[in-house]
Amino acid sequence: MFKYLILLLLTIILFFSPVSAGLVQFWPDADSVSTTDIRDIIDGTNERVIFATTNGISIYDGKNWEILHALPKDRRGYLEGIPLDDYVLEIEYDYLNNLWLGYSNGLQIYNGYSKPFTIRQPDGILFDVSINKLKRQGKIMWIATGDSGIFYYLDGRFTWVRPGEDTGLTGNHINDIEIDYSDDRLYLASVSDGQFTFKGNPKNITFKKISDPLIAEDMIRIVSYPKGGVLFFNKTDVVHYSEMIGSSHVFSVDDLSPDADKILDVAITKDGRYIIGTDFGIFCWNKGEVCKHITRYEGLSGNYISTVFIDNKGRWWFASKDTVGYYVEPEFVAISSIELKPSKSATGPTILGDLAYLI
Question: I need a labelling partner for 310 at 20 to 30 A (CA). Which of 2, 24, 123, 129 fits?
Fold first, then answer.
């Protein structure tokens, strides 16, 4: 009987045991990520992940890294390479799969094979070429520039949305842009004047300022929520907002851990879990509680996590002060064809069967 119980216990453990989980980290190097100062992350083609950094563009293909640096400047002071400058602030694909790159001194659009289209101050296309944010919405590319509000690119033309009462966009400096994909609504956050929303024809824009007691003016970071609405957050609180149903407080930094003081970044998994970068590691928040906490104790090089990102494969990417890496959630084994047979050496049955591994 005792032998039977042991075998049954081992079977239960196998059934619920993870077979694939881990924390992978990369230290900056010529054959690795170029720096841990990550400014933007996107999914690239062929399952690549692309990092806009303060030291060029780093690309990870699942096995190897590639680093793209700006070309040495010529007598005119620049060359038309990719990237234009090693300090890359923003990166985004448009609907034609052209790669847009934003810098503090210009904008580039690259189709992958010909010379990149570059916009600088003397070109007169953008009043300010310091790029705060790039965000695609269908065929439209939104561009937040310096202190001059936003532009949008549509049908081969850049159009300026003039800040002021006429457009409803009273904030000059736009820090973040996000889309509620459930109803294709645009949201903006401005350090100078709070949050705004708009839905409709971009050729006839009137923004609405969001006035909600739960949304503080310094909530200038926005994340799209996969089940509808967006998240506004600052260093202490995260609020969910939808134009249809209003706002609801999701969590505060105090809800995560008494040792965490700052929320630094938030990403959302496809099933709606919150992955949170803080000054005390990475948290996963689900259904009103912390369901995972990763710190130096679990192998992180440091607890200060400035950036988090969920790629198309479901990896939790992060940037700390020393490393860039990702966490892979565990997968589980399952058991099939379990057969119970009487044991010759015990009064109870023994378990025999085949294990099917589900990956």
Answer: 129
The stretches of the chain forming alpha helices (DSSP H) are 2-15, 253-256
Minimal CA–CA distance to 181: which of 230, 218, 142, 114? Answer: 230
C-alpha to C-alpha distance for 307 and 267, rounded to whole angstroms: 9
Are the CB atoms for 331 and 20 separated by under 8 Å? yes
Q: How far is CA 287 from CA 104, 195, 274, 314, 352, in A?
A: 40, 27, 10, 19, 39
Mapping DSSP to helix (H, G, I), strand (E, B) and coil, where does residue 42 land? Answer: strand
3-class SS letters over 58-110: EEECCCCEEEECCCCCCCCCCCCCCCCCCCEEEEEECCCCCEEEEECCCEEEE
DSSP state of 279: B
Distances, alpha carbon 209 to alpha carbons 63, 147, 250, 302, in Å:
45, 18, 22, 39
pTM: 0.85
DSSP-derived letter for residue 126 is: S
Residues facing 151 on adjacent strands: 143, 160
Could you tell me if 23 and 29 are in contact, meaning their C-beta atoms sit under 8 angstroms apart? no
Please state the separation of Cα 206 from the chain's center in Å: 28
**130, 305, 336 from 16: Cα distances, Å:** 51, 30, 13
Return contacts of 316-323, CB within 8 angstroms, 24+ apart.
316/267, 316/275, 316/282, 317/41, 317/49, 318/277, 318/282, 319/36, 319/37, 319/38, 320/36, 321/36, 322/27, 322/36, 323/25, 323/26, 323/27, 323/36
CA–CA dist 303, 91 (Å, integer): 26
The amino acid that residue 289 corresponds to is E
Residue 204 confidence (pLDDT): 86
C-alpha distance across the termini of the chain, in Å: 33
Indicate whether 8 pLDDT > 60.
no
Mean pLDDT confidence for 67-77: 80
Ordered by where they begin, the domains of the chain are 32-161 (2.130.10.10)
Scanning the structure block, which residue is given the tokens 């034609």? 96
Residue 161 has a pLDDT of 94
